[in-house]
Structures are given as structure tokens and as C-alpha cells.
Amino acid sequence: MGPMTTNTRRSALAVLAVAVAVAACTPTLELTPSDAGVVLSRQALDAPDPSQTGEYGVLTLYYGSGTDKNRPEYRDSVAITTPAVDVSKMVDLGGSAAERNEYWGFTPEEMPLNARVWYPDGDGPFPLVLVVHGNHNMRDFSDPGYDYLGELLASRGYILASVDENFINGGIRGENDARGWFLLRHVQLFAEFNEESGNPFEGMVDMDNIVLIGHSRGGEAVANAAAFNKLSHYPDDASLSFDFGYDIQGIISIAPVDGQYLPTGRKVVVEDMSYLTFHGSHDGDVTSFHGLRIYDRLRFNDPDDFNFKSAIYVYRANHGQWNSVWGPHDNGPRSPRILDLRGLIPEEDQRRFAEIYVSAFVDIVTKGDKRYLPIFRDHRVIGEWLPETMYVTRFESSGFRPLATFEEDIDVTTGSEEGVRIRGDSLATWSEATLELRSSNRNNTSASQENQGVTLAWNNRLAGSDTTQHGPAARYLLGLPEGLAADMRLWAGSTLDFMLAPTNRVPGPRQAPDADDNEAGDNEAGADENEDPPRRSAGDDEEEDPPVDLSVEITDASGETARVTLSDYGAIRRPLETYVMRRRDLEQERFQSHWELVLQTYSIPLRDFVADNRSLDLRQLESVSLVFDQVHGGEVVVDHIGFTPDMDPAFLRARVDGS
Fold it and tell me: What domains can you pick out in the chain, each with its CATH number?
């Protein structure tokens, strides 16, 4: 399937029509123009659509054992014959061993290295991309399902191999280490192909630029491969040595699982490479965004070595439509009886999203084309290219310097950076806690995101019969130690970054301060601190709550302040209602809530604060505040507050009018 393009501007009426259609298929969800409006603002990215067919003709071939019992392409059509490998230390077939060995014609001691390859009709060398499927019916072969990515990337100057691991699919467990190891053995094959005289890939492979892509269990496998690539021995049995060390520049996890493989009983941590993960809200298989865990564990050790990570939540996308073989039936043939499929975005639209983001990612990490960097922060800059649905985007670069990540200790008044002090003013809720997913996966015992955040709630109205009375706006302030801003070398080209998402909850009005109190104290809930403030869900009162918004304020050492409005930097959406099951009783049994808490990244250029107050001295910043002055009440979850001292100019230029 070739890449799809959209060259015409859709009107706002078209977007609203989509909103109506979505509302007809999903209960109680209402889309406002600002929510649905990925196309209501101008196209702001100075770059061509990365899902457009490239300049190269596309060639294809198969490599493999040449003896495959069930796959004629890997028996009769191989252009390169590859050896079998022993993965018995990583794969245990259990009670199904005899049946599986009979079906496939081989055992774990002699599994094949098979793949189908799309590559450019040109001289190269070309970056190498490997993609691996996840778990599925082993007889319904999964590796052909990424043909759309193969055709696109090959036309744009990449070699893409879709790796066959169907022989470890089906009802076995604990094999995700093998999935990652297999990927590295395929990388090793291409290193050999590149040096072999007369090989179709002789001299064609850019072994300095490698990207791994995985879907479902494959999405965890690419993280395993990235970790194994730097090890000398297999963590669970050191009698098996590794000899990899390839130049993997980035990995992509599509709707991944996490924690299916635990080396030495711990989660895999990826370091010093770029990472992209995306997940659909209506995933009926991996029903929560486990890629967020891999995202949060990923470490950048050198701020001068540019890497980035991004996570994107795609509303109404499912699990299987990322693969053209799997399709919409996440629970197999009986899916229409179990899953509510009516609200899914079309298969071609879902794969178009993958084309855009995968192509842009590999262009950045292998070719250094940073023009595409802004799409990972704010999807609206490519609104005309994207399927009409809603998105939540998360972004962080290796240059990010945190003030507060809420991971370090139990003191809510201290930040992550030494000397950062935190205080709240007139807040109804101020609490740090582990964030949760809406459901646990079969292979995970926890619904945790394994990441801490801070919950802040406010209501500026004062309790009493006169609901027009307001107290001072609630505030959450991070005080910077002297010299920190100068040490970070903050300037107009820096950005203030944090993640935030509103909830549906709104606390009740706060108690007026005592008459002899001139200002609220540091506890600042306003009500008796020994009592929980009244709270409700949005919509409980007759009065409808307005969309959540707030101001962001910075202050320098001389008292100069500047303020911007957060909604100018991205949509601030209440949680997106999601119903995956056809029956609501089954939905309640399977899920803790009918929405997933996915925090959105907001990046505010410091030049915008300077535009508000030209007397502001960025090298002498003293505080950063979230000021809850835009709406009377609400609740938000916030995480990873900090600065990126030097943001790429393309990132800063790409802005959305009227956002």
C-alpha cells in the first residue's frame, strides 16, 4: 500500500462534522472547535509532508532459511540464504513444544532469520530500519503488515526490513528478550551483507544510522534490543555472550507492552537515544499506554548530545490497525461481539498517522532534519496532514534541565534541582502521588504509570450565599536558588517546559480567610486544614464549568514579572472519554476509569515572557509560578517542570496562530 496524501485545506465545518460523527459513536463526548481543531489554525511547519512518496524507486527481496515449511516466500523466494540460530536460552515452548515444533519444522535450537525487505533503487549508503511485529495468531503471519511503512521509507531513502518472528507468537510467555535479541541478530546480518562481495546490499547500508521499530510486544522488544546492544552478556544467563554495539540512533514503540521481560527482575532502561511511542485510546489489546513507562525511564546522560523522546496518544485509534494484516479486531474474530468498533478511525487514517510520525522521526535521528521536531511537541503545526481526531503529545529533549520531577523524596516543598523550593497559595489540593493508568495489562500486576506527579486543585470563589465573591487567585510557585538561571544560561531562545493535564474534578468554594489574616498561609487551602475540601465532578452543578486554563508567570530577582496564558501553547483538554467494550458492565469490570490520564507537554519560549516585559532579566530568574486566575476552579496534574536552555530554532519558529 503506497503512502496517502491530503493536499486540500479542510474547512472548520468539516471538522465539526467529524465531531458530530464521533459523538454519535461514543457516549457523552462533546468536541468543541478548539478540541477537534487540528485544522482550524494555519499550517505552521516549514517542511514538506514526510508521508509523501520520495524520489527513489522501491525494490523488494526476501532473505531467510530457504527451507521454511509454512512460508513459501522464505523457502522459494529468498535472495539471500541466512543461518539458523539457537534461542533456547530465551524461548521456552512449554507444553506446546511438540505441536509447535511439528507445525514449524524446527525447534528453538534452530530458528530462522527471515525478513522481507523494501529498499531504494539507488547506490546508497542508506539508513537501516528494522520493524518487528508483536504477538498474534502464529498462523496469521504478521510480518507483511508493515508494507505501508516499507514502501514509504524505501522511497525516501531507507532500507526497511520487516522481521519474521511468527514462530514465537501464540500462547507462550516470557519470550520478549528473544524478540529483542532477534532484532540485533538481523542488524548483524546487515553488517555482514554490507561487507559481502556480490550481496545485493554490498556497500548500501549506513551502519552508523539504525532505527528499530516494534509493535505491541515488539514495542517492548526494541527497548530490550537497545539495552542488549550495550551489554557483553545476557543478563539472565551470562554463559550467553553478546557482541553487538551497533549505532542505534532511535527506537519506536507502537502500542507497546512493558514489563513482559524483566532482566534480573528489573525494568529495562534505555539510555542516550531518541525514542518515539504512540498509542490509541481504543486499544482493545494493550488497553493502557504502557509506552509512557518506557518513556519515563529513558535517560539522557549528555545534554550536548542531542536526542529527544516523544509520546503521542491518538484518540479513537486501536491496536491492530497499525498492522495491515491485523486490522480492527483486537480480540480476534469475535471482536465485533466484544469490542465497540463503531468509533474507530478508519484503518487508512490510523496508518497515515504512523507514516507521518515514523517518517519524520527517522528523518530527524538519521538525517538530522530538525525541521520536523515541532510536530512531536504540538500536533497542530501539521493539522492539515493529520487524520481528524484528537491528540495528546509529550516531548522532552536531552537538553532539558528539571526543576521538579516529583521523584526524589517525600518533601513536597523541595524540587529536583538543589535549592529549588516550592510553595502553594490558596490551593484546595496540593499532593504528590504516583500516576495511574486506566487498566493493567495481562502481563503487569500494576495499573501504575510508575511516575510521580503533583495534583493541584483550586476554587477561587468564597463559600457563602454570594457566589460572585472571589479570593486571591491560587498559585503554585517554584523558587529558584540564586545563580541557577545564569548557570543554565537561560536566554530568549530557551523554553520553559512542563507536562500538564486537567481532570474532571473541581473542588467546592473555599472558606474566606479570617478577618485578621492579611494573606493566606502556606497551607493555603482556605478551609480547615484538617478537613478535606468539598469536591465534585464537572457537571454536578447546573452551572457548566469552563474549559481549564491558567497563567504562567516568571519573576526575576529585581521583582520584574511577566505572564502568559497557557492555552496559547496548546489545547488543555479534560480527559477524553473512552469506551472500548460493547457492554458497559464489562467495561466497568475491565477498567478503573473511562479515561486515561495522559499529560500534555507545553513548551513556552522565554522570548514570549520578554515580549510581555522587556525589563525582565532571564539570567536572574527567581521564580516560576502557575497562577490559577483564568477560571474559578479546577484540578490539574503537573509533572517535569524545567527549562530547555537551547531549543532548536525550527522548534521555536513553528507556532500555531490562534492556538
Answer: 55-351 (3.40.50.1820), 401-653 (2.60.120.430)
